[in-house]
Design goal:
The complex is a heterodimer of chains A (about 290) and B (about 325). With about 290 residues, chain A is an all-alpha fold. Chain A has helices at about 1-30, 40-55, 60-80, 90-115, 140-160, 160-170, 175-180, 185-205, 215-230, 235-255, 265-275, and strands at about 130, 135. In chain A, helix 9 (about 215-230) packs parallel to helix 11. Classes of the chains: A mainly alpha (about 290), B mainly alpha (about 325).
Chain lengths: ~290, ~325
């Protein structure tokens, strides 16, 4: 019983992480119709920044995470102004290839700065809390809480604020928004920054739970794709539901069918895309 | 013979390819064995790039999954010759047939998704095969992969496998050239230009795209087969999406809108990388930046640049002739 509860809990905390990264990707796609292949690279950057801040400079993790997220936000804005801005209105091919090139650049820059040795960040909450007699790791509880707060905040921003109104307007009809006197270009910059910052938050929050090393960018990218695509690109709650589904399924397969564990996400992604390319909660392309 | 644009388009490319091939075969004895290995890799990359560009440049399909067929072609050779112990001819047939069949299946599923969704589903296939190749240790050697292939005597020396590679690649590229020039190839370009119009004209777009996918996958499998014969290895990263990116980059650098662009792109990419690797271990950074510049400012690559220069010269000549 305890084993099942623990793996279920681990699954949910994995889902929380997947949601953070996937929601950033789905936000960028929903508003800008851009698939950011470099999303995993921003995640990796968040993890490395947290390592730098907390392990090298000694900043407490609670303070370092917002700082790392801010850093990734700035990097994302620079990428949007420096690269993505030039791809709008062009073929989707150009955008995919440009962000793909960014993956190589960021991966190699990270390799130059941090090398191949895997880095670790001290877990600020190493203990565990008893819930109904089952000891559950405290830090992972915080991760789940952060994901819930971020999810609610995203929902509130998208449905209740002027910015959310603009984002929805921009995804429906950017020309009209522009005609009403709003700058779609600036809006895109903000969206790309927020989406990238969400990837950075995922990376920063992951760092104390695992090792930070080259390759984590690709590993999370595929998972983020699965969450965003299966949930329906552009749909935040789709991302939340699918993240939960995949997190729990991964936890379960690890117990029941370990051979299937690593290929499960790809199979889910293939089946979804073949049957319903716009995802479970998305809308078909016009 | 007057070399106007039409004769150039019709027959010159195969002639140039054969001429280059003859030169390569003749100079082989003069070249050191390790250089021959590099040349062999560069030559088979030409086929990888040209086959992938049948999708990318000719049909407008961005597949992140071409490594599946490349890697499976290579693995079929290593598994067939060492684990299964097949005779060489059977291994070769399998290494051509299996990627072909696989591309028929993967294509049928993937082409149901369009635009970026097509890119993402092919990416998922690439990562699925990558994961499987690491998992089935008994068959594939897991993470380390497999090294050494039982080759027939006439193919053991690097020079021999290089000569074979040159011949096979030239035959395949010329075959793809004829595919591109055929009515079928023209239909593919019509689909790329305007999918809806092609559909309205009564073209079965899905079927055309599927056939293109199978042709591209099969020829990519041949490139993988040549990889295993020349480099005598197969390992998981041959299947992952970074490998899928290699022919895309080659096509992009050379110019995906022309047939010969990817050929030049493959040569530039491969030998550029070889050159960079001797100076720096961070070739990825340079290539990433190069790709970024090409994508943003010269999306038609080298071929596009050549074309615009040719046009400018023609324009100047035209203006001069006019009184």
């Amino acid at each position: 019983m305890t084993a099942v509860a623990t793996s279920l809990f681990t699954g949910i905390s994995t889902a929380a992480l997947l949601f953070l990264v996937g929601s950033g990707m789905t936000l960028i796609f929903g508003a800008m119709r851009v698939i950011n292949v470099a999303h995993g690279s921003l995640y990796m950057l968040g993890a490395y920044l947290l390592y730098e801040l907390s392990s090298t400079l000694g900043v407490p993790v609670g303070v370092a995470i917002p700082l790392a997220v801010g850093g990734v936000f700035i990097v994302s804005v620079v990428i949007e102004r420096g690269v993505m801005r030039f791809t709008y209105g062009k073929e989707h091919l150009i955008q995919l290839l440009a962000t793909y090139a960014l993956v190589l650049v960021i991966a190699d820059l990270a390799l130059i700065i941090w090398g191949t040795t895997s880095r670790s960040v001290q877990n600020p909450l190493p203990g565990s809390l008893d819930v109904l007699g089952v000891p559950l790791p405290a830090y992972r509880m915080v991760v789940i809480a952060v994901a819930v707060v971020v999810g609610l905040a995203l929902w509130l921003v998208l449905t209740r604020t002027r910015l959310g109104w603009m984002i929805r307007g921009s995804s429906e009809n950017p020309a009209t928004l522009e005609a009403m006197g709003y700058s779609v270009s600036k809006l895109n910059m903000v969206i790309f920054g927020i989406g990238g910052a969400l990837a950075g938050l995922g990376g920063a929050i992951y760092a104390p739970m695992g090792s930070v090393a080259p390759g984590i960018d690709n590993a999370i990218l595929i998972d983020a794709f699965v969450v965003a695509v299966v949930g329906g690109l552009g749909s935040i709650y789709g991302a939340a539901i699918v993240a939960l589904l995949i997190g729990v399924l991964q936890g379960v397969t690890l117990l029941v069918l370990p051979e299937l564990h690593s290929s499960l996400v790809f199979i889910i992604m293939i089946v979804t895309l073949a049957i319903r390319p716009w995802g479970l909660f998305g809308r078909p392309e016009r | 013979m007057k070399l106007d644009k039409r004769t150039l388009d019709l027959g010159l490319l195969p002639v140039i390819l054969v001429a280059v091939g003859v030169v390569l075969v003749l100079i082989t004895p003069l070249v050191k064995a390790n250089v021959v290995l590099t040349l062999q890799l560069g030559t088979l990359y030409v086929l990888f790039a040209v086959a992938t560009n049948l999708l990318l440049g000719q049909t407008g399909l961005l597949s992140f999954g071409q490594a599946v067929f490349f890697g499976v072609g290579a693995y079929t050779v290593t598994i067939g010759s060492t684990v299964a112990g097949w005779p060489f001819w059977l291994t070769v047939i399998a290494a051509i047939a299996i990627p072909g069949i696989l591309s028929a299946l993967i294509g049928a599923l993937s082409l149901r998704a369009r635009k970026f969704y097509f890119g993402l589903i092919t990416l998922a296939f690439s990562q699925l095969f990558f994961t499987l190749s690491r998992q089935f240790y008994d068959l594939t050697g897991g993470d380390t992969g497999m090294f050494g292939v039982d080759l027939p005597k006439w193919l053991v020396r690097p020079a021999d496998s290089f000569r074979l590679t040159v011949v096979v690649v030239i035959v395949c590229v010329i075959a793809l050239w004829f595919v591109t020039r055929s009515p079928f190839g023209q239909t593919l370009r019509a689909i790329k230009e305007n999918r809806q119009r092609a559909q309205a004209l009564g073209i079965d777009v899905y079927r055309h795209e599927w056939i293109a996918f199978v042709i591209a996958g099969s020829f990519t499998g041949v490139a993988g087969l040549l990889f295993a014969i020349g480099q005598q290895a197969a390992y998981p990263t041959l299947l992952d999406w970074q490998t899928s990116g290699i022919p895309l980059f080659m096509a992009l650098i050379g110019g995906m809108n022309s047939f010969w662009g990817p050929i030049v792109g493959a040569v530039v990419f491969h030998f550029g990388r070889q050159g960079l690797v001797t100076y720096t271990s961070h070739w990825q950074l340079f290539f990433g930046l190069l790709i970024l510049v090409v994508v943003l400012f010269a999306p038609n690559g080298i071929a596009g640049a050549v074309e615009s220069i040719r046009r400018r010269i023609a324009k100047r000549r035209f203006l001069k002739e006019k009184p």
